[in-house]
Amino acid sequence: MQLLDGKATSEQLKAEIAEKVAAIKAANGKVPHLAAVIVGNDGGSHTYVNNKVLTCEQLGFDSTLIALPEDTSEADLLQKVDELNNNDEIDGFIVQVPLPKHIDENKITEAISPDKDVDGFHPENLGRMMLGLPTYISATPNGILELLKRNGIKTSGKHCVVVGRSNIVGTPMSILMSRNAEPGNCTVTMVHSRTQNMQEICASADILIVAIGKPEFIKADMVKPGAVVIDVGTTRVPDTSKPKGFALKGDVDFEGIKDKCSFITPVPGGVGPMTIASLMQNTLLAQERRAEAENNN
Ligand code: NAP
Question: What mean pLDDT do residues 136-142 have?
């Protein structure tokens, strides 16, 4: 088994981004600017957003963190989105999900300008991805593609099983793995909570990508010998032996599977760091596109 080290691969990618940012800054004094909006007090969400802001600093980006209280109304959040859409200082922004229950996530996603939607969640960007047009590909699926590409994993002609059908991971991942590109060109099966014969389908995968949020759900009998296993899941499981009182668990039984597969991502240190690097890549792209549009005007 070979570890697919997302931390090391993301460091490579981030170094390339930082180099481009330094060159742009030297040429015109500008750097990409990412804003992140977070609503409420969810510990996991605050950790993710703080990591994104820290990575901005690391790579020479500007960043703005907007923390709003749990009881922020949908109307007030829509107004904040509108302000960010119209703020020329901001190249791209994200609204961290999940949002409190009283806010309709779809309404917020649709209100974000597709040009600044560096999470790639807007219907227009998802549609463009479907058609293979220039877009922002959502950070987690894009990070997984980079991880496969940069570790030399060939995907063409392989059977890829994607477990989970969320709008931010499973569904875009299944489309990307089936597109006519490398990575891609897979025969894709998507499975979800209503799927029958889960064990049999997963055990037939050459590439198994799991995003369900069920700690250690995928056991050794669900993995084909020699498979590539990508574990997207990150669930906080109480663990008093850890300084923070919890351990981060993936959707895959890593210890039970590691000797059976050819490649496997660890949790933490696999898909998570690639997701953040990918968001930075999208923000740099947003800045480049804005600069190009300004030059053409
Ligand atoms: P989600 O919205 O939580 O949805 C879970 C999906 O898993 C649903 O499609 C559900 O099926 C499916 N599912 C649940 N139980 C199942 C089962 N027993 N068998 C088969 N399918 C099952 O998904 P998500 O937002 O993609 O998150 C999934 C996990 O990935 C979470 O742990 C999340 O924290 C993690 N995540 C990590 C990153 C990262 O950067 N590392 C990024 C995003 C998400 P139904 O549709 O039928 O209900």
Answer: 97
Q: Is 279 in the pocket of ligand 1 (CB under 6 A)?
A: no
Looking at the CA of residue 143, tell me the nearest atom of ligand 1.
40
| 78: exposed, middle or buried (Cβ count in 10 Å: 0-12, 13-18, 19+) | middle
In tens, the pLDDT along 4-30 reads 999 999 999 999 999 999 999 999 999
Closest atom of ligand 1 relative to the 195 alpha carbon: 20
Cβ–Cβ contacts within 10 Å for residue 215, how many? 18
Backbone phi, psi, residue 89, to 5°? -75, -20
Nearest alpha carbon to residue 63 among 29, 95, 33? 33
Preceding amide of 98 cis, omega within 30: yes
H or E, element range at 48: helix 43-59
Q: How far apart (Å, rounded) are the C-alpha atoms in residues 40 and 257?
A: 37
List the one residue out of 262, 200, 257 whose CA is nearest residue 228: 262
User: What is the Å distance from ligand 1's center to 282 Cα?
Assistant: 23
Parallel, antiparallel, or unpaired: how do β-strands 92-95 and 159-163 relate? unpaired
Active site residue 214: no
> Cα–Cα distance between 32 and 29 in angstroms, integer?
10
Residue 252 CB–ligand 1 contact under 6 Å: no
Q: What is the mean pLDDT of the chain?
A: 97
Domains belonging to the chain, first-starting first, are: 28-113 (3.40.50.10860), 139-271 (3.40.50.720)
Q: Is 76 a catalytic residue?
A: no
Sheet holding 62-68, edge to edge: 62-68, 33-39, 92-95
* Candidate from 138, 166, 198 with most ligand 1 atoms within 8 A of CB, to mutate: 166
Average pLDDT estimate for 30-39: 97
- CA–CA separation, 180 and 185 (whole Å): 5
